[in-house]
Amino acid sequence: MHRQKRILVTGGAGFLGSHLCDRLVTEGHDVMCLDNFFTGTKKNIAHLLGKANFEVIRHDLVHPLFVETDEIYNLACPASPVHYQFNPVKTVKTSVMGAIHMLGLAKRVRAKVLQASTSEVYGNPTVNPQAESYWGNVNPIGPRSCYDEGKRCAETLFFDYHRQNRVNIRVVRIFNTYGPRMHPNDGRVVSNFIVQSLKGEDVTVFGDGSQTRSFCYVDDMIDGMIRMMDAPDDCIGPVNLGNPEERTIRELAEKIITLTGTSSKIVFKDPPVDDPVQRRPEIRLARETLNWAPVVGIEEGLKKTIAYFRSILSGQLI
Ligand code: NAD
Ligand code: UDP
Prior knowledge:
Elements: E1 6-10, H1 15-26, E2 30-35, E3 54-58, E4 71-74, H2 81-84, H3 88-109, E5 112-118, H4 145-165, E6 168-174, E7 177-178, H5 189-199, E8 203-206, E9 212-214, E10 216-217, H6 218-230, E11 239-241, E12 246-248, H7 249-260, E13 266-269, H8 284-290, H9 298-313
Parallel strand pairs: 1-2, 1-4, 2-3, 4-5, 5-6, 6-11, 7-10, 8-13
Antiparallel strand pairs: 9-12
Helix pairs in contact: 1-6, 3-4, 5-7, 5-9, 7-9
Bound molecules: nicotinamide-adenine-dinucleotide (NAD) and uridine-5'-diphosphate.
């Protein structure tokens, strides 16, 4: 077993955060799960509540926090467009104030701090695939900007605290990730298509469905994040984490319709403002520096995710 560390996971009751807590608790670390339960839920972490090496802190990250910790994974931030556009000012505050507070804490207690950044820092990219060296094409004043620019500013803060205060940072840029515990109503494409298919409703493709995304299964993503935290101190990133298999949204809809065996039909809706046209991670850096690459294929991952949503919809879970 690894040396036991005290680890703070902000956003720990969310989709990715709860899977990360699972892994860290299983590895024997002392895990503090911080959340304000905006998009996360206690049900995601209910199975961990009785464990001696797990505790929950109800806290809003726009306010400062002081705890003793060795490592911080900073995930607190709504991630789906529906959720982050619900209160855009709060989204910016969470990203920016949250980063300042976690970097300040890391500086004070000499903790290592990892930022869950996003492929959205590349905006609507003019290059494909996106490598870490690409600076992005982001609208600063649109409906997605609260998230995109908030995350970009958080990256700036991470690198400035590193240069100015020698804080030990890690920045990962996460590309679309899916799996069990996604919020059924968060509007993200994988959860939407599965829930619609399982209910026999129309599957809503926005635009003509030719826009692309690359979908990574949650277990692969958590593995990449932990490898990044454990990497040597000169490996600060940013490092892309995602699955480089690119597919159109229409292909995804057809695949989910086939895998669920539904009689649902695809319907086309107006595309959202500033919807990125293409997205695929260049993951050479993660392969070379972290010896990481995704191993779960789309069918295997979708089958597990479909099984999860089936159990939710039949009332067995959540
Ligand atoms: P999520 O919405 O399930 O989790 C976010 C968690 O943060 C929730 O539990 C929420 O309650 C909590 N939170 C939000 N605002 C907070 C605040 N002010 N104070 C304390 N807690 C707060 O989303 P997720 O998919 O698990 O994403 C986790 C992180 O990963 C986010 O930072 C997101 O930007 C990043 N990310 C995710 C993806 C993806 O595809 N899932 C892609 C890129 C980046
Ligand atoms: N999308 C869609 N139907 C839906 C939800 C999303 O066609 O019901 C599209 C959306 O327009 C985008 C892609 O799927 O092109 C991914 O959307 P999501 O909100 O999951 O993530 P993001 O845009 O942040 O990558």
